[in-house]
Structure formats: C-alpha cells, structure tokens
Amino acid sequence: MDIPETRYARSGDVMIAYQVVGEGPFDVVVTPGTVSHVELYSDIAGMAALLRGLAEHARVIFFDKRGTGLSDRVAGVPTLEERSDDIRAVMDAAGSDRAALFGLSEGVPMSVVFAASHPGRVSALVLYGGEVRTLWAPDYPFGATEREYRKAIEEKFDAFVTPGGLEEMVRSGFPSAAEDEVRAWARVFRYGASPASLEALERMNMAIDVREVLPVVGVPTLVVHQRGDPWVRVESGRYLAGHIAAAAYVELDGDEHIPTAAFVPQLLAQVVPFLQDAAGREAPEPDKVLATVLFSDIVDSTTRAAELGDTRWRQLLGEHHACVRRQLARFRGVELDTAGDGFFARFDGPARAIRCALAIRDAVREVGLQVRLGLHTGECEVLDAKVTGIAVAIGARVAARAAAGEVLVSQTVKDLVAGSGIGFEDRGLAELKGVPGQWRLYSVTSC
C-alpha cells in the first residue's frame, strides 16, 4: 500500500497524527489497538489489506492515539475521555461530520465511549477483538485476575528489552502469521512506543471498565471475534454484543487476535456490507446520550441571605453565578438549568466535569460561599436540547449527599476516569431517595 501523507489534528494541547485513504461515499474512522504507527502500516500485509479493502468502499481515516506512533508524547497516561476527544479532533480535521467507527482490540472501549457520547456523529460501530473490562469480577468471570494481568505487563516489558522478544510477543497474537508480518508488527511496537510507555498504557488498561456505557450505545453495531483469539477471550466478544441493544454478532473460526492478510478477506466480508447498509440509512435524531451531569448547591443559602439582606444577597448570588459560568465555559460544560442558588450542567466527559466541579468549588470560595457538588455519568434522554432520565435524578441525589465543599461522584464516574490521576476516597454504599438499589459514592480528594 502506498503511504498517504501524514497530517496532524490538534486535540487540546496535543497533535494527533492521522492519514486518509480512499474516496468512498461514506467515512470510516479506524481506532487502533494499544500501539500503532500510521506510516508503518503499509509494511504490514494484514493492516495494509484491511485499510485497502475498506478504502475501496469508503474514505478511511486512521490515526495514532496520543502518546503512540507519530502523535505527540504526553506526560502521564491518556484517559479514555482524552482518547475519545482525539477521535473528534481527527474527524474535525479531516472534515468528517459523521463516520462509522471501526475499533480494533484496545480501540474498542474508546470507540464505545465516543459512540455513546456523540451519537449524532457516528453512523455505525464495528468492534473487533475487544473487551470492555480487563479484570475478573463476579459478574465478569472471563477477565484476568490482577495477578495474571500484572504478570502479563511484566512479560511485555521484558519483550521490549530482550533481543527478539517483541517478535515473540507479536507471534503469540497470531501464531500462523508469516515471519515478515511478525517482524513488521514488531517494528510498529518498537517505533510506536517505548518500554515504559507501553507498561504505563497497559496499567491504565487494567482499570478499564465501560460496561455501564454499553446500554447507551444506540447506533447500528457489529461485533466480530475470532473463536480462538489468544489475547482476548471469545467470551468478551459475546458479552460485548449481548449488552448493546440489537448488536449483530459474528464469531469466526480462527485463532488470531491481530488480523493477518489471510484472515482480512473474511473480516471484510462481514464488515463492508454492514457499513454500506448503515451508510444508506437516514441519520435519526439521537434520543439518548452518555453524559456526565453536574449539580451544585450553595450551602446554607437561606441563612446567608437572611444575614446579608436582599440587596447584598442578590449581588453575591450574581458573583456566584458568574464564577460558575466561567468554569463551565472553561471545561466545555453546558448549562441546562439554574434554580435559585443551584446549577445543573452536562459534560461529554467525566474527568472534565470533575475538574470543573473542583474549579467551581474553589472559585466561589473566593467570594465567600461554599457549595456542595455531585456528579453522575449515565444514559440521558435527549429532549429539546435538554437531558432527562434516571441518570439526571441520580446526579441530583448524589449532590444532595455531598458535604460542604465536597465533590461527590458515583462509582460509574470513578470507573470512567481511570488513569486520570484524580484521587478518590470511598464514601461507602448509599441509598438515594427515589432511586432503586444501593450506590457506592466517592469523594474527590485530588486532581
């Protein structure tokens, strides 16, 4: 495959490398696995065949995630939220208003999050060889134990620093591959990451759990998994398909994780007709979206109003509102309602919402007020640019349980910001008024 020109998209302060091939009637964004390198894909028979096959029917956009390949290296470990932002940045730079997402391996969770958070920009979702949680849990029995996963991370690190180790690691992902394909993939890992950066990425992946997001996905979805995948158990693919409404599932009789050139025709035979069918459908108005809702409330507002008198209280309330709105604008929050001394806002990313909540708390403290804030991430119903539903009710109830000066979040929020560096303190299980079940809550301690 000829090497297309590498272009760059700005995502916040980071430049994301991407390429475009094909001129088809619809767009496909290929979301890569843990490590990629857009300029080395042409040397890999399997990846070149996949991209070329897709490009015969569509305009194909593929990129290196931040911290890997030709994209900017970053301090720390990128979160799923930041990676999802990179998809949007690449689509914007490539002039793509709406595209199908093709998530490969570790690119599956970020594709799921983006499709749920931005349904109006996604025409379809293809998920190959992926998992939505890494570690074992009672309700996810096919995940690895933490001990097993940490051992695997150590082995990958050793593979980087041992002569011939990368080739051996890659070969374990597709044992029947030709040696030139194995060597080409080993070069991708060698040039696309460093031993320490791969280790850090894998440690972040260990904390991934986007199971709560799956019911929110409303776009046409195809899940493809090889029955004998040596890196991601087939039960992961079955789980994925079983928890996305009306997802189609195809289980192929193979033993590869990394698709080889010999396997790609089977994969394309499933994927291309699905994408063509989805592209031919009229884009519906999204009726649900994954959102993080934020509720804030001034502590002891009635008492303060009585102490200050109406005139001074109205002035102070105006200063409070100005503080909150400055921070919402800074962190891309959308104000949805202001009831008296409280705010209701939504965000398309939980880490941004947490940082905004902390900034609001600190800003209003400077004008002599204290607030309590609560956040929850979940499925929201979209109605006339507003969001409603049980997730909104949960967010309000979480805020009501927060102490003065506290930012309190649900378990879902905490799970989705894995790798962000945000610190939490477990506040235990709580019953939320009017909401079934018990909910584990966390207080944000650092950011």
What percent of residues are in strands? 15-25%
Q: Helices and strands, in N-to-C order? A: EEEHEHEHEHHHHEHEHEHHEEHEEHEHEE
- How many helices in DSSP terms? 14
CATH class of the largest domain reads Alpha Beta
- What class would the helix/strand composition place it in? alpha/beta
Largest sheet, if any?
A: 8 strands, mixed
CATH superfamily of the largest domain: Alpha/Beta hydrolase fold, catalytic domain
Query: Helicity, in percent?
Result: 25-40%
Number of strands: 16
Rg on CA atoms, Å: 23 Å
Overall pLDDT metric: 93
- Strands across the major sheet, in which order? 1-2-4-3-5-6-7-8
What overall geometry do the principal axes of the alpha carbons give?
elongated
Q: Describe it for me?
A:
- This protein has 447 residues and is of the alpha/beta class.
- The protein has two domains: 7-279, 3-Layer(aba) Sandwich (Rossmann fold), CATH 3.40.50; 288-446, Nucleotide cyclase, GGDEF domain (Alpha-Beta Plaits, 2-Layer Sandwich).
- Helix content is 38%, strand content 24%.
- It contains 14 helices and 16 strands.
- It has helices at 45-55, 80-93, 107-117, 146-161, 165-171, 179-192, 195-205, 234-242, 264-279, 301-308, 310-330, 350-365, 390-400, 411-416, and strands spanning 7-11, 14-21, 27-31, 59-63, 99-104, 122-128, 221-226, 248-252, 288-298, 334-339, 342-347, 371-383, 386-388, 407-410, 423-431, 438-446.
- A hairpin with a 2-residue loop joins strand 12 (371-383) and strand 13 (386-388).
- Helix 2 crosses helix 3, helix 5 (165-171) packs across helix 6 (179-192) and helix 10 (301-308) packs across helix 11.
- The longest helix is centred in the C-terminal third of the chain and has 21 residues, at 310-330.
- The model has no long low-confidence stretch (mean pLDDT 93).
